[in-house]
Amino acid sequence: MFSSSKPHLSPVRSILPPVRCGIRELRHRIQTVDATHKLTEAMKLVAAARVRRAQEAVVSARPFSSNLAAVLADVAQRLQDDGVSTPLTASRPVKTVALVVVTADRGLCGGFNKSVISKAATRIEELKKLGLGCVVISVGKKGNSFFARNGKNSDPFVKVDSFIEIGGFPTAKEAQVIADDVFSLFVSEEVDKVELVYTKFVSLVRFEPVIGPLLPFVNDGNGNCGDGVFRLSTKEGKLALERDVVRFRKEGEGLVLPLMEFEQDPVQILDAMLPLYLNSQILRGLQESVASELAARMGAMAAATDNAVELGKSLSVAYNRERQAKITGELLEIVAGAEALTRNDS
C-alpha cells in the first residue's frame, strides 16, 4: 500500500547535452531560460527572507518545550514513586499506534515532502510487521493527497483519521486542533501510543525526518544545552551564513528542587500542564517542519538558478555558433554568386 523508497535528489548538472535546433528556437529557449532564472532567483530570495523568521520561531520555542518537559518529568517521577498515574502518563499494552505526519502545503522544495512521507511509510510497514494497527493524522496538503490516494486500498492495519491543513506559519491555535484530536484518540483508548513524524531543523543546509513520541508522556532524558543558529547575512552582495550558539539549559540541570513542595495536588498539576505540553510539542514539530521546508526550498531554488545559468550559457554558445554558421553560409553564397557573374562577363 505504502511505498518506502528512498528519496532521489537531483544534483546540479555540470555537463549539459549538446543543443541541436534552429536559431529561432534557440532564441526562444534563451528567453524562456532567462525568465525561469529570474523566477527561481526571486523564489530563493523569498524563501531566504522567510526562513529567518521560521528559524527564530524554532529556536525560541525549544527552551520552553525542553524546560516544560523537564518540570513535568520531575513531577511525574514523584507520582510514579508514590504509585500514582494519570491518563496521559499511563502506559498500556500497545495495539494501535497513531502517527501525526507533518508535510508541506506546496512543492518546489527538493526531496523534503518525499523524505517525510518515506519515513512515515517505513514506520507503517514496521508496525504492520509487528501486527499493530496504525491510525494516521495527516497535516499538510502534500501528505493529505498522498494518504488520500493510497488510503483507497483497503488495509485492515492502516486507517486515516483526519486531514488537516495549516497554511502559513503555524500558531498555537492550529497546534491545538491537532492536540485535541490526539488527546481524544488516546484518552478514549482508540490508540495506545502517539508518535509525531516531522522534519527536524538542524541548519539551513541540513534537516532530517525524525519520529518523536508524544503520548504517553515519558522523560527521554535528553537535556539540550544549546542550539546552533545559522543566520543569513550578506557579504559582497551575496548571501552568506554566520553561526551562533544559543544556550538555554545546561545538561542535567534540574528545574524542580528535591525538597520543593507543591501547594496543589501533583495529579492536578499534571492534568493541567500535560495538555499544554502536548500543544507545545506539536507546535514545535510544526515550526521545525516549516523551517526545514523553507530551507529546502531555498536550496532547491538555488540549484535551479545555477542550472538555469549553466543552461543559458550553453544555449548562448549554441546560438552564436548557429548565427555565425548562417552568416558564413550567406557570405559564401554572395562570394560564389559574384564569381559566377565575373565568369559570365568574361
UniProtKB/TrEMBL annotation:
Highest taxon of the lineage: Eukaryota
Q: Which UniProt keywords apply?
A: ATP synthesis, CF(1), Hydrogen ion transport, Ion transport, Membrane, Transport
- UniProt-listed GO biological process terms: regulation of root morphogenesis
Main localisation, per the record?
Answer: plastid
Pfam families, per this entry? ATP-synt (PF00231)
Q: Which Gene3D superfamilies match?
A: 3.40.1380.10, ATP synthase, gamma subunit, helix hairpin domain (1.10.287.80)
List, alphabetically, the InterPro entries matched.
ATP_synth_F1_ATPase_gsu, ATP_synth_F1_gsu, ATP_synth_F1_gsu_CS
Q: Which NCBIfam families match?
A: ATPsyn_F1gamma
Q: Give the protein's recorded name.
A: ATP synthase gamma chain
